[in-house]
């Protein structure tokens, strides 16, 4: 089943559609199909212009909802994309290396690390965050994909294992002992 078929099955016929898929060796997996726009940083990957002004995806959506003119605005002709940098393993984020090299890859427009140093990281599906975002533009979608993958390959995230905290159970143990004596 493709995204269009999933949207049709949900009755999503007009307005923004947000779809997230995981693509790996085992196949294509739907994570989300919803009646909403892409959010946060990701919407920055799309630009619309009428030759005089440039507006955001959110403004296009609001103009359509308010029945304002949108037909003169076209998405830019270059392909664009964003990679939500996945968290490779659980632990505490201590450093990222290779940022300058990753930013210098052809086609990369922006690379933002949104995780904070000393932040505890939990990978998907248990976690809900990304390490950051990489934005690219190129003449073709394949060019965008290659730029995003090349930039990501330059990055090395230092994540130390989360230290297990010893739980002080002395009160619980003493309480259990007292109950056993009674």
Architecture overview:
The chain is of the alpha+beta class and 182 residues long. It folds into three domains: 1-36, no CATH class; 44-77, no CATH class; 78-162, 2-Layer Sandwich (D-amino Acid Aminotransferase, Chain A, domain 1), CATH 3.30.470. It has helices at residues 3-9, 57-65, 99-103, 141-154, 170-181; strands spanning 18-24, 27-34, 48-49, 54-55, 74-75, 79-85, 91-97, 108-113, 120-121, 132-138, 156-160. The protein has a three-stranded antiparallel sheet with strand order 4-3-5. A three-stranded antiparallel sheet has the order 6-10-8. The longest helix has 14 residues, at 141-154. The model has no long low-confidence stretch (mean pLDDT 88).
Name its key features.
182 residues, alpha+beta, D-amino Acid Aminotransferase, Chain A, domain 1, 3 domains, 3-stranded antiparallel sheet, 5 helices, 11 strands
Compact summary:
This protein is an alpha+beta fold and 182 residues long. The protein contains five helices and eleven strands, in the order H-E-E-E-E-H-E-E-E-H-E-E-E-H-E-H. The strands form four sheets. The chain has a three-stranded antiparallel sheet with strand order 4-3-5. A three-stranded antiparallel sheet has the order 6-10-8.
